């Protein structure tokens, strides 16, 4: 571990290799903390020049570093110049291992501060710094339920900011762990960024009923967002001047589904929304209406097995923590396209109705399936005899 004091040049050399040790101080005895609290950014920048080791102080009660304090929502109009200088001196402060006593990091604060949460380039720098420091130090990672992505979903942040956070899931688990878009096999809290955004969208008076014109624009947004180059920054600007509040909310929702997926092929949007750990039946219904062709479109889950969305839901129904919601999803999928009930599941060689019979769905739902697919028994007999 590196001590905070001593020769600054020596400290800088050791910081390239080690994890810094912080000194706990009383904030009003530290000129840097006082300058930040007063919003005197010229003085704060001067302190970084003459006493850069103060960047490695922590407030003894709250465990907050100067970087925490400078990004907090209570700090008005923080200086971008100061933040960039500070994070360059102490990049380690952005990591979750240096969270304050509420479990928050500077990235959490950056996403909730009204003066910084729309600063695309600043958020990107903080996130990229976190990724580099995490890789360099291999610091411990504790996933806090209120992730930066969750905080960002509560505020009205641009979709570009959400996109920056979502893409980190390929590297670290704490910036965007509970996106609400993981598949059913992954742990997922019911209270998620997706639920926050979807509740806001569906409650808008212009959303229901979803007319043909709105559906056409929503389909265009899905194609644009999911196919968009990762390096592009046009989510919030491309066509935004013509978007209604409903469509802006929809852009944010679809952005959450851009998180990388480790499957043989890229799953369809319907497959993704159907296999959420905490399902949203009304969202599934909307996507069924937007992309009815995806009801029968198979997604490769391995090199030797493909399945349609209904099969995926049935295959994982045992793991679901909310049987009522998952059975509503099943009902939505099968009524939207009854032909899905007579599709065979490759890995089990069972038709949909019999795949459902092997799960713990209710008898009422199973009888509904059999009424919609009366020839399922005959098809299954043929499959077994063949």
Describe this structure in words.
The chain has a domain at 1-107 and 117-139: Serine Threonine Protein Phosphatase 5, Tetratricopeptide repeat, CATH 1.25.40. The strands form three sheets. The chain has a two-stranded parallel ribbon with strand order 1-2. By secondary structure, it is mainly α. Helices cover 47% and strands 4% of the residues. The chain is elongated.
SSE inventory with pairings:
Elements: H1 8-15, E1 23-25, H2 31-38, H3 41-50, E2 57-59, H4 66-71, H5 80-89, H6 106-112, H7 120-137, H8 148-154, H9 159-166, H10 193-202, H11 212-226, H12 245-256, H13 269-274, H14 281-290, E3 299-302, E4 305-307, H15 309-315, H16 323-336, E5 344-345, E6 350-351, H17 352-357, H18 363-372, H19 376-385
Parallel strand pairs: 1-2
Antiparallel strand pairs: 3-4, 5-6
Helix pairs in contact: 2-3, 3-5, 6-8, 7-9, 8-9, 8-10, 9-12, 10-12, 11-12, 14-16, 15-16
Describe the biggest sheet? Answer: 2 strands, parallel
Which bin fits the share of residues in helices? 40-55%
Shape: elongated
Give, in spatial order, the strands making up the sheet with the most strands.
1-2
Q: By helix and strand content, what is the structural category?
A: mainly alpha
Oligomeric state, counting identical vs distinct chains: single chain
Number of helices: 19
Q: CATH homologous superfamily of the domain at 1-107 and 117-139?
A: Ankyrin repeat-containing domain
Distance between the termini: 68 Å
Number of strands: 6
The low-confidence runs, each spanning 5 or more residues with pLDDT under 50, are none
Q: CATH top level of the domain at 1-107 and 117-139?
A: Mainly Alpha
Residues in β-strands, percent: under 5%
Computed Rg: 25 Å
The name CATH uses for the topology of the domain at 1-107 and 117-139 is Serine Threonine Protein Phosphatase 5, Tetratricopeptide repeat
Q: What's the pLDDT, averaged over the residues? A: 85
In the CATH hierarchy, the architecture of the domain at 1-107 and 117-139 is Alpha Horseshoe
